[in-house]
Each structure stands twice: as structure tokens, then as C-alpha cells.
Design goal:
Number of domains: 2
Helix content: 40-55%
Structural class: alpha/beta
Strand order of the largest sheet: 2-1-3-11-6
Number of helices: 17
InterPro entries: SBP (IPR006059)
Pfam family, one: SBP_bac_1
Radius of gyration: 22 Å
Bound molecules: alpha-D-glucopyranose
Strand content: 5-15%
Oligomer: single chain
Shape: globular
Keywords: Signal, Transport
Protein name: ABC transporter substrate-binding protein
Largest sheet: 5 strands, mixed
GO biological process, one term: maltodextrin transmembrane transport
CATH class of the largest domain: Alpha Beta
Order of helices and strands: HEHEHEHHHEEEEHEHHHEHEEHHHHHH
């Protein structure tokens, strides 16, 4: 399915020549405060930013169409927290090393408050018209647009169709069915994202939200954190580890290690993002290949489904020397059906452009996304989200792993949240 990667466009020498040959300004490049033309640098991470990945294909497509301003990916780490750290280092120093930033939906508030990203109000209308409302919302803060939607995200339950008949609808059922199926097959029941980082917070919240919990009220003026519910779901996760429902690697797994476990046939169930679907489907040597399907995530109550709303939008660095071209790129990546369709067809990465879903309604990943995205729940987009997340990781990760008192862990999270609204 995936096309072999041919990354020809933007070798350093080639770009220098291009920049030197471009006289004065042109429509794409000259923003009046620096270079005309020239290479753009797109700082983005994760599996699909690597050679052969779909973000590289999007960069290649743009570069072919815009030889004056080709774009190259500066590969960031796989893990969201580390990507943020690397971007923050450059932006705090007001460095012009990155023109376009792949910004997780939870960083919009922080980046805009820090003055790290350009306002995109000038191109707001066309971007708003093209994008899914939830994805568009995730790129705004304080009523202003700070990034162009690029890929949205929601968690799926992956399950082995050769080992279980029906996907479970509650987390308790998942453990029950999973333990029995795993025992029979000599593998492990479940893996998700249990390492101490943003992905753990996402996994924890999906339990907590699906039990009816909330962090704040809508306008974030009141803390609604329910310590009793929080303690219950934390206890559930601790028990799932103690009772062998979670695979032994759960507490150190991020997205990619979890994918590897599933792809190598070591687990019955996995919580992961849609990008995994395409990769397992392509791997004909995988025991899961041809033997898996996707379903909405289970809930605590068995009612409906809930997932954290994820995704990455493209922002323009406030310190870029090539802002006009960078704005053109992020607008194109949000509103042109070609790159948006590539995300879906080459990599099962969920696009943000509404019309692409209509055109791909026969695709199983897009069909399931159509079901779960409307219920996907945003993490509070507050500028202080990173600090809240780090506190949740610090308090809840040991508690889930049997290393801390659950009650005091959830109380400390509530106290921290209270501190954010005083
Ligand atoms: C995915 C999501 C992102 C989330 C991260 C957590 O990359 O798109 O929103 O923060 O996973 O690991």
C-alpha cells in the first residue's frame, strides 16, 4: 500500500543553489523580513515522520509543486513530551531553525501565549471551511487561529479476530475475555500506552471520562475532579497489572512499543491510534495481519464510547525567516485534498478535512473514525496543560503501578487542578 519513499527534493546543496538563484521576492517566499525562496524546515515527530512515512510523502509532494520553497522534515522524537521539549528549546531561544511546527492539539494555548507561533487569522476562513469542527477548535486559543489542522486522532481498540469473537464493550470484560484468550494462545491480554508520559495521561483519562468523570467545567472556572471515581479507575488499572491483564511491558510502553507487541502477535488487545492499522495491514509477516479488526474503545460503564481527541496541527514559528511560504504550506496541508487524502490512503492517519471522509467512506478506518470522532473528548487546551499532565503522570503513574497510595495520588491531582484556577 505504502509507496516506496523517494526523497529527492531538498538536499542542502540543492536548496542553497535554489536560494541563490531566486532574484528578489516571489509570491511564495518573501515576507519582507528575510530570505526570498529557500527551504522550509518542518519540525515533526512520530512514526510517520520517518523516511517512508506519510509526512515525508506530504513534504515531497509540496516540494515538487513548490521548487522555490521545498520543505524538509526535521525529525523529532517519537514521544509527544520529548517533541514538545525539543521545539520549546528552539523557540525559547527565538531560533529560526524551524519554520513549521507539528503542534500537538494540547500545546496550542501554551505556544500562542508564549508568542511562539504566528496568528493564522488571515487564512482563517478557508481553513475553517475545510476542516472538521473539532480539529479546527483544537487549533484555536482565545478565539484566534494559531495553527492549521493537519491530522486528527482518536483511540481505537485493536483486537485479534482469530482469538476473540466480539470486541468487548467494557474494560472489565476486556480483561476477562483477554486473560482467557491470551492463556489459550500463550500470549498476553492487553497493551496500551502505560509509560510515564502524555500517552499514559490519555489512557488514564479514557477510563476516567468513560466512568463519567470530568476535570473542569466547560469554561475552566471550576474543578470537577471526582476523587472517588479517579481512585476507582486507578485501582482498576492497578488490579489489571497485578492480575496480568496488562502485558508486563505496559508500564514502559509508548505508541510504538505497543504497536510492536501487537504486530508481533504478542497480545490479544491493544489501545492505539489509527496509524497502526495501515502498518499492521502492510506487514504480511505479522501474525496479526489478516487476523485483526478495530472497534470503538470500551468504557467503564459499557455505554457508548469515549476517546481522547488527539492530533497534530501545523503552526508557523514566530521566529521563521520565511513566514509567508510557511503559511502557504500549512494552509495547503489543511485545505488541499491531495495531501489530506494521502494521510488516509497511504497511512491510515486521520485527516482533518471534512470532504476527505465523504470520499473515503468505504475505508474501514475512516468509517470507524466517523463513529468515534464525534464523541472524542479534548483534553483542556489550557496553556498550563503540560504542567497538569506532568503532575498527573507524577502522581498517578506510581499509583497505577502499586507504588503509591491511590487516595493521596488522586487528592494531589485535585489540589493541583484547584491551583490552576485560583
Ligand atoms: C498522539 C496524539 C496526541 C497525543 C499523543 C500522546 O500522538 O495525536 O494528541 O498527545 O498521542 O502520546
Amino acid at each position: 500500500m505504502r509507496k516506496a519513499m523517494t526523497w529527492l527534493a531538498a538536499g542542502g546543496a540543492f536548496v542553497l543553489v535554489m536560494a541563490a538563484c531566486t532574484p528578489g521576492g516571489d509570491d511564495n517566499g518573501d515576507d519582507g523580513d528575510g530570505e526570498a525562496g529557500g527551504e522550509l524546515v518542518w519540525a515533526i515527530g512520530g512514526a510517520e515522520a520517518q523516511p517512508g512515512g506519510v509526512h515525508q510523502q506530504v513534504a515531497e509532494l509540496w516540494s515538487e509543486q513548490n521548487p522555490d520553497n521545498p520543505i524538509r522534515i526535521e525529525l523529532l522524537p517519537e514521544e509527544a513530551d520529548q517533541q514538545r521539549e525539543q521545539q520549546a528549546l528552539e523557540l525559547q531561544a527565538e531560533g529560526s531553525g524551524f519554520d513549521v511546527l507539528g503542534v500537538d492539539v494540547i500545546w496550542t494555548g501554551e505556544y500562542s501565549e508564549n508568542g511562539w507561533v504566528e496568528s493564522l487569522e488571515d487564512v482563517r476562513a478557508e481553513i475553517e471551511e475545510a476542516s472538521l469542527p473539532g480539529a479546527f477548535e483544537s487549533a484555536t486559543w482565545g478565539g484566534e487561529l494559531w495553527a492549521a489542522p493537519y491530522n486528527t486522532n482518536a483511540g481505537f481498540l485493536y483486537y485479534r479476530t482469530d482469538l476473540v469473537e466480539e470486541p468487548p464493550t467494557t474494560w472489565a470484560d476486556l480483561c476477562q475475555v483477554g486473560v482467557a484468550a491470551a492463556e489459550a494462545a500463550g500470549i498476553q491480554p492487553f497493551i496500551g500506552q502505560g509509560a510515564q508520559y502524555e500517552g499514559f495521561v490519555v489512557n488514564w483519562l479514557e477510563y476516567y471520562w468513560s466512568a463519567g468523570g470530568e476535570l473542569y467545567n466547560e469554561d475552566q472556572t471550576e474543578v470537577l475532579f471526582d476523587t472517588e471515581l479517579a481512585a476507582q479507575v486507578t485501582q482498576f488499572m492497578a488490579d489489571a497489572i497485578a492480575q496480568g491483564c496488562y502485558a508486563p511491558g505496559f508500564n514502559t510502553a509508548q505508541e510504538e512499543p505497543a504497536r510492536n507487541e501487537f504486530q508481533q502477535g504478542n497480545v490479544v488487545f491493544m489501545r492505539n491510534w489509527p496509524y497502526v492499522y495501515g502498518l499492521v495491514n502492510e506487514d504480511t509477516g505479522s501474525p496479526a495481519n489478516g487476523n485483526f479488526d478495530i472497534a470503538p474503545l470500551p468504557t467503564v460503564t459499557g455505554e457508548g464510547t469515549i476517546s481522547a481527541l488527539g492530533g497534530f496541527n501545523n503552526a508557523v514559528s514566530a521566529f521563521s525567516d520565511n513566514k509567508d511560504a510557511a503559511i502557504d504550506f500549512v494552509t495547503w496541508a489543511a485545505t488541499d485534498p491531495e495531501p489530506q487524502t494521502l494521510l488516509a490512503t497511504e497511512a491510515s492517519v486521520p485527516p482533518t478535512m471534512e470532504s476527505v471522509y465523504e470520499d473515503l467512506s468505504d475505508d474501514p478506518v475512516m468509517a470507524l473514525l466517523g463513529e468515534v470522532l464525534p464523541d472524542a473528548k479534548p483534553r483542556p487546551p489550557a496553556p498550563q496543560w503540560n504542567e497538569i499532565s506532568v503532575e498527573m503522570q507524577r502522581a498517578l503513574h506510581p499509583a497505577v503501578n502499586g507504588q503509591g497510595d491511590i487516595q493521596s495520588a488522586v487528592e494531589s491531582v485535585r489540589d493541583f487542578l484547584e491551583g490552576t484556577i485560583e
